[in-house]
Amino acid sequence: MTARKRYWLMKSEPDAFSIDDLQRVGTEPWNGVRNYQARNFMRDGMKVDDGVLFYHSNAKVPGVVGVARVASAAYPDETQFDPKSPYHDPKATREQPRWFLVDVAFERKLERVIPLEEIKQHTDALGEGFPLTARGSRLSVFPVTAAQWKLLLSLE
User: Fold this and answer.
1) Confidence at residue 134, expressed as pLDDT on a 0 to 100 scale
2) What is the pLDDT of residue 2?
3) Is residue 45 a contact partner of residue 81, using CB atoms and an 8 Å limit?
4) d(CA 6, CA 120)
5) Cα separations (Å) of 70 from 62, 73, 111, 133?
6) Cα distance between the two ends of the chain
7) What is the pLDDT, as a whole number, of residue 138?
């Protein structure tokens, strides 16, 4: 019996790493996440071949810009061990890493950006507490239901 496919939304600032960057490199470690809840989603929830909505945050037009997939099981984020990295964590050790990541593989760019403002028009259909439409939610990685995935991609 195979596990049920899961879906996720992962945010990135396009100046740091964009959908075009992912298309160029093909697969990339999703490093630098320093939020425990987002880390737990990657470490405990994500499985190879899960779907990913790639979201540009802090952009001129924030929104969903592409589709990717989880390409690896979770493993320790190397940036936590590098004192020169902005993501260095002096409390992390190789024996007890604190931060984990998954590799993400490019699938496709959307035909158009699905802007946050348009997504907000579907708040009721997406459900109460959907992180993109909920006030104060700053998670960079979060689960998306199959119904939310279908709805968001139908907006393309």
Assistant:
1) 85
2) 57
3) no
4) 22
5) 22, 8, 21, 24
6) 33
7) 80
